[in-house]
Design goal:
Layout: H1 2-8, H2 12-24, H3 27-36, E1 44-50, H4 56-69, E2 74-80, H5 92-96, H6 98-101, E3 106-112, H7 124-133, E4 138-142, E5 159-164, H8 171-175, E6 185-188, H9 196-209, H10 215-223, E7 242-244, H11 253-270, H12 272-300, H13 303-314, H14 320-331, H15 335-341
Parallel strand pairs: 1-4, 1-5, 2-3, 2-4, 5-6, 6-7
Helix pairs in contact: 1-2, 2-3, 2-7, 4-11
């Protein structure tokens, strides 16, 4: 495919068209990704997540500028929420990043979440693959920012930054639903506002108490196969540093870049990177299988049959689990049909 060859040479228009193709899906997108995939695996993927209003877009803007000053090209995938009523999205991240939107060596792609949960769009991973294959060594992924469900980014990024801000809620709010447990770096942004010092101290206290400590990483380290390293030789668990930045003033960005580099080095030294890459591949494969099988299953069920089943659930004649099993059984989903759908 000519468009793939152009993208591999860094052609921005070809890259944009390929990402659009990935969003549309279909056989042509799968064929293009198959051609691109052998060229991936070189980029560092940095995830930025946190609640709305914490300044994620401005932070990504400043990070991109910092990496460009180092001579690195930067790809940005910014996911915006989609209206549940109209299906439209403002794509406001592109507006907030207008300062770097035309900078040579920085490619920005805004994507609508289109109702996908977890803070990412359906084709976010494919967009990252395109940018990776196109030769962008740093890829920044900004999630929707809907709050505590923003955890899927941890399965995609090499380093996940969770952004907080002063006076953004009580201490319990900060650790709800594990949002901080996915953090490799915890960032108090808008540190020029009152309360930044207190917010940072509260987060440090949570780490000291062990409520958000990354003990899970030790288990992952011990389970990484093929490293040949003795458990006693492995470094201890990574403790997420708590940093303060004022992205709008460009303050603290250098410390953040250093922390990202240190986390990347930690993963390489510990052998954790290989294990995370394996888990990342498994998560992406499972997601694709689930989506593909669901689409295939729904194609096998007549619309009237689906509507009748919904009505039976509504009037309590059938529970949802039994209804799902009945539809699967009636769909004729066999091994041959499963092979044909992929």
């Amino acid at each position: 495919m000519r468009i793939v060859e152009q993208a591999l040479k860094g052609d921005r228009r070809a890259i944009a068209r390929l990402i659009s193709l990935m969003e549309s899906g279909g056989p042509e997108a799968r064929q293009a990704l198959s051609r691109l995939y052998p060229h991936t695996g070189q980029a560092d993927v940095i995830g930025v997540t946190g609640a709305p209003g914490t300044g994620k877009s401005t932070l990504v803007n400043e990070l991109a500028k910092a990496y460009r000053h180092q001579g690195l090209t930067v790809g940005i995938v910014a996911v915006d929420p989609t209206s549940p009523f109209s299906g439209g999205a403002l794509l406001g991240d592109r507006i907030r990043m207008s300062e770097v939107a035309t900078v040579p060596g920085i490619f920005i792609r805004s994507m609508a979440s289109r109702g996908n949960l977890g803070g990412l769009a359906r084709a976010t991973a494919d967009a990252v693959h395109v940018l990776d294959a196109a030769g962008y060594p740093m890829i920044l992924v900004e999630t929707v920012g809907a709050g505590q469900s923003e955890v899927k980014i941890a399965g995609m990024a090499h380093t996940t930054i969770v952004v907080q801000m002063p006076a953004s809620g009580d201490g319990v709010q900060a650790i709800k639903a594990g949002i901080l447990e996915i953090a490799d770096i915890i960032l108090v942004n808008k540190a020029d506002l009152p309360g930044a010092e207190d917010a940072a101290q509260a987060l440090e206290a949570m780490l000291d108490l062990g409520s958000v400590r990354a003990e899970r990483l030790r288990d992952e380290l011990l389970g990484v196969g093929g490293s040949g390293a003795d458990a006693n030789d492995l470094p201890g668990p990574w403790r997420p540093p708590v940093l303060r930045t004022s992205a709008i003033r460009g303050e603290g960005i250098g410390d953040l870049v250093t922390a990202i580099e240190e986390h990347g080095q930690y993963q390489r030294d510990s052998g954790l990177k290989a294990g995370r890459d394996r888990k990342r591949a498994m998560a992406e494969l499972r997601h694709i299988l689930q989506s593909t099988l669901l689409e295939h299953l729904l194609r096998q069920i007549p619309e009237k049959g689906l509507e009748d089943t919904v009505e039976r659930i509504v009037v309590r004649e059938m529970d949802p689990h039994s209804a799902a099993q009945k539809l699967i059984a009636e769909s004729g989903l066999t091994r041959d049909s499963l092979c044909s759908c992929c």
